[in-house]
């Protein structure tokens, strides 16, 4: 497979990771982490996605070692992914992991990455309209940094993934709202039915029937919806449904 074919295949895999309408965030993250090393000449790749704050980050890695490293970085709150997310800016300059400034900036991350054999690292932001939501981190074992062409391609992959993730989150929010509206509508229908039952059983106007229903639920610290269900199904407390003597 040529490099162009691998690139096209990666974009198709990213697009297909949520093509069924799924709002599962790990899907696109895993695809990006798994495809990035071969496409970008990295030894390993990790992805950190934290739109709601770095403490609740989602993490993916191209292999178990890099995945563990990124999970540890989240706990340490340091490393290129953390800095890239916090800066809300463009990609951080590439870092040689054996340099003194890098050791000082990331006192936990750097020695751990060096022990795994990595020599260079760079973080490319996952950019959304509201800001940076995470980063694609590329790790190299070579004695040279990533080329400008590689970083340009990496930014394209990161930007595309950010779009996929934002759409997945929008789908999740839409599904939540739809569920809430359906639940509210169902509750309203049941309450209206219960009002009719009470109005008939107790020979009172609908407004008074609703007032009885609400007071009964409140006195027992129960949702009006639940009491209404019992009225409709004929299981309600007789104190509520039976006519007053």
Structure report:
There is one protein chain. This protein is of the alpha+beta class. The chain folds into two domains: 3-174, Beta-Lactamase (2-Layer Sandwich); 178-241, Arc Repressor Mutant, subunit A. The protein is 60% helix and 13% strand. It contains ten helices and five strands. The protein has helices spanning 3-16, 26-40, 64-76, 80-87, 100-105, 109-115, 148-202, 206-219, 224-233, 238-241; strands spanning 44-49, 58-61, 95-96, 120-128, 131-140. Strands 2-1-5-4-3 form a five-stranded antiparallel β-sheet, sandwiched between helices. Strand 1 and strand 2 (58-61) form a beta hairpin. Helix 8 (206-219) crosses helix 9. It is elongated, with a radius of gyration of 28 Å. The termini are far apart. 33% of the residues are buried.
Outline the fold blueprint.
Layout lengths: L2 H14 L9 H15 L3 E6 L8 E4 L2 H13 L3 H8 L7 E2 L3 H6 L3 H7 L4 E9 L2 E10 L7 H55 L3 H14 L4 H10 L4 H4 L4
Antiparallel strand pairs: 1-2, 1-5, 3-4, 4-5
Main attributes?
60% helix; five-stranded antiparallel beta sheet; single chain; alpha+beta; 5 strands; Beta-Lactamase; 245 residues; 10 helices; 2 domains; Arc Repressor Mutant, subunit A
The number of helical runs is: 10
Mean pLDDT: 83
Enumerate the spans where pLDDT stays under 50 for 5 or more consecutive residues.
none
The helix content is: 55-70%
User: Strand arrangement, largest sheet?
Assistant: 2-1-5-4-3
Order of helices and strands: HHEEHHEHHEEHHHH
Calculate Rg over CA atoms: 28 Å
Please state the structural category.
alpha+beta
**Overall geometry:** elongated
Q: Quick one: CATH superfamily of the largest domain?
A: GAF domain
The count of β-strands is: 5
Question: Any idea how many domains?
Answer: 2
Would you tell me which CATH topology of the largest domain applies?
Answer: Beta-Lactamase
Beta strand %: 5-15%
Specify the biggest β-sheet. 5 strands, antiparallel
């Amino acid at each position: 497979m040529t490099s162009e074919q691998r690139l096209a295949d990666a974009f198709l895999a990213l697009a297909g990771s949520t093509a069924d309408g799924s709002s599962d965030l790990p899907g696109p993250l895993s695809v990006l982490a798994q495809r990035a090393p071969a496409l970008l000449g990295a030894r390993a790749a990790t992805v950190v996605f934290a739109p709601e704050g770095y403490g609740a980050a989602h993490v993916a890695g191209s292999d178990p070692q890099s995945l563990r490293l990124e999970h540890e970085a989240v706990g340490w709150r340091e490393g290129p992914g953390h800095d890239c997310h916090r800066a809300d800016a463009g990609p951080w300059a590439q870092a040689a992991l054996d340099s003194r400034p890098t050791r000082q900036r990331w006192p936990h991350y750097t020695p751990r990455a060096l022990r795994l054999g990595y020599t260079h690292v760079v973080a490319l932001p996952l950019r959304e309209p509201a800001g940076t939501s995470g980063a694609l981190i590329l790790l190299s074992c070579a004695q040279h940094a990533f080329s400008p062409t590689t970083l340009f391609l990496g930014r394209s992959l990161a930007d595309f993934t950010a779009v996929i993730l934002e759409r997945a989150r929008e789908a999740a929010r839409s599904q939540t709202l739809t569920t809430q509206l359906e639940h509210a509508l169902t509750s309203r229908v049941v309450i209206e039915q219960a009002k009719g039952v009470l109005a008939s059983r107790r020979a009172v106007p609908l407004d008074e029937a609703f007032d009885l229903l609400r007071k009964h639920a409140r006195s027992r610290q129960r949702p009006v919806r639940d009491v209404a269900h019992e009225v409709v199904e004929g299981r309600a407390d007789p104190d509520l449904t039976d006519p007053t003597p």
